[in-house]
Each structure stands twice: as structure tokens, then as C-alpha cells.
Design a protein that fits this description.
This protein is mainly alpha-helical. It contains twelve helices and no strands. The chain has helices at about 1-10, 25-30, 40-50, 55-60, 65-70, 75-95, 100-105, 115-125, 135-140, 150-160, 165-180, 200-204.
């Protein structure tokens, strides 16, 4: 697809910006990333994973200590409670293993479709597109979807791209949203895909 090729040319290094050592660390990082920047999450997990980096270790960690360690990520009380519950579920149901199916992942505390799709794509190499606020916004502006919910947008993007391109599409749309197609004031003049953008063409 020409759109993806142009985005690849503009953002050749677009990839997952979270820093992690294994599937479990990625899961914790993605849970922490809700309404928080990847840069902040990486700063927090650098110290957090020195204290605990397995479901068993997080389960044993005092929740007040966990809250202290992740406080700067925001929504820390809810995130700490979800992480503790998630780690109990991982140890009780999956022997400490992070499951690799959508059906299993979304049963975990703090894990919705967006987080599950990140895990499927990044951790397990399966075709999946996670719809965060950037992907939702950019998909609408580019005319790739008019869906009212993230699930609707995910369905439309899955139809718009080949499965083998899902991973690239996810990271490229996020990067474009962060660097150019901003929420309040998109930088249309610098947009690498302006000629293909439904919103820009209507504005001209």
C-alpha cells in the first residue's frame, strides 16, 4: 500500500519504544503506558524491574511499594491494583506464563483489546493492530475508518491492510500521530501523506 510506503520513508525507525526484556516485562510496561508516555514508562520500569520482574515477584511486592514505584506514571493506584491482580492470575491460571491468544489475554486484569493486540504483535509476532488514541485519530483523518469505537477502527484497519503489514501499520500510524498529525493542530504542511489524506483534501 502506497500510504504505508510513504510513512515508512518518513519514519524508517518506527517501532515499539517501550524497553523490556521479555513478554512479562512488556505486559507490565503496556499496562503502565495508559495515559502516559513511553519515555516516562521506560524511566519508571528501569528501576521497577530491578525490584521485581516476574509475576511471582510482583505478587509478593507490597502494594504500597508498588504504588510508590509507579506513581509518576499516573493513575498509579488503579494500575498497581491491576498489576497485582494480573500477576495473581498469571501465576494461578498460567503458571507465570503470559498467554498468547486474544481470548486469554483479555481475561487478565488491566488488559483490554489494545494491550492484548500490542502483546500479540510485539511479543508474539502475530498479526494485530492495537488502536490507541493516535491510531484512532490518524485512521479517521486519513479516511481509513469512520468507526465510532476503537473496536470499529481496528476492524476497518484490519480490512485496509494486509496481515503481514499489521505490525508496521500500527507503529507507523502511532509515530505519525505523535510527530505530525497532532490532536489539536496537525502539521499538514509537513505531512508526508498529505496528498492521500481525506481530511487535508477536504480542507483545501
Amino acid at each position: 500500500m502506497e500510504l504505508l510506503e510513504e510513512l515508512k520513508n518518513a519514519y524508517p525507525d518506527a517501532t515499539c519504544e517501550l524497553e523490556y526484556g521479555n513478554e512479562f516485562e512488556l505486559l507490565i510496561s503496556v499496562i503502565l503506558s495508559a495515559q502516559c508516555t513511553d519515555k516516562r514508562v521506560n524511566t519508571v520500569t528501569k528501576e521497577l524491574f530491578k525490584v521485581a520482574n516476574t509475576p511471582q515477584a510482583f505478587r509478593a511486592l507490597d502494594i504500597a511499594e508498588l504504588e510508590r514505584l509507579i506513581k509518576s506514571c499516573g493513575l498509579y493506584k488503579n494500575k498497581a491494583a491491576n498489576i497485582k491482580s494480573c500477576c495473581r492470575e498469571l501465576t494461578d491460571k498460567y503458571g507465570g506464563r503470559v498467554p498468547d491468544t486474544m481470548e486469554e489475554l483479555i481475561t487478565l486484569s488491566g488488559v483490554g483489546r489494545k494491550t492484548a493486540n500490542v502483546m500479540l504483535s510485539v511479543a508474539f509476532g502475530k498479526p494485530a493492530i492495537a488502536v490507541d488514541t493516535h491510531v484512532f485519530r490518524v485512521a479517521h483523518r486519513l479516511g481509513l475508518s469512520d468507526g465510532k469505537t476503537p473496536n470499529d477502527v481496528e476492524r476497518d484497519l484490519n480490512a485496509a491492510f494486509r496481515q503481514e503489514d499489521y505490525r508496521d501499520a500500527h507503529f507507523l500510524l502511532i509515530r505519525h500521530g505523535r510527530d505530525c498529525c497532532h490532536a489539536r493542530k496537525p502539521n499538514c504542511e509537513a505531512c508526508p501523506v498529505r496528498v492521500m489524506c481525506a481530511t487535508a483534501s477536504r480542507a483545501e
